[in-house]
Amino acid sequence: LGLGVMGYPMAGHLARAGHQVTVYNRTASKSIAWCDEYTRATGLNDAINMALTPRQAVHDAELVFCCVGNDDDLRSVVLGDSGAFAGMAAGSVLIDHTTASATVARELHALALSGGLNFLDAPVSGGQVGAQNGALTVMCGGDQAAFERAQPVALAFAKAFTYLGASGAGQLAKMVN
Q: Is 139 helix (H, G, I), strand (E, B) or coil?
């Protein structure tokens, strides 16, 4: 969810690693361009898709990666009838790479748990070049079992994916960084 300067290459690394990827971006033309580029790059026509809402994008996903601009953007793609939480299956994990507040991380973590979902705040460090090179450092807060499920997949775009503690810990570490 989110194909900005960070999310676009991060999703590309997931596709190149052979994962089934469905993308969503508020500007649909970015999703179309991403699908065209990575279908050609990987040859995995059946594994690359786009959706018109976050809810559609997360259908049947065990792991959902999100990278948007700020707290309000994050709430807009996660909450509501068209949001990711509305379409996620019980037990699935939303890994949020947005540099957001620890407050919104804790808020979404609590909402996820109340709906039988998992939420990790996992902001990234390394900038656009790190995203393009698959060399990001990711600081994670949330449930350790959810972290352990996400880590092997996230290493497609990260050189380090580190668990730091309870919900909000990833965002607090990013603030210090």
A: strand
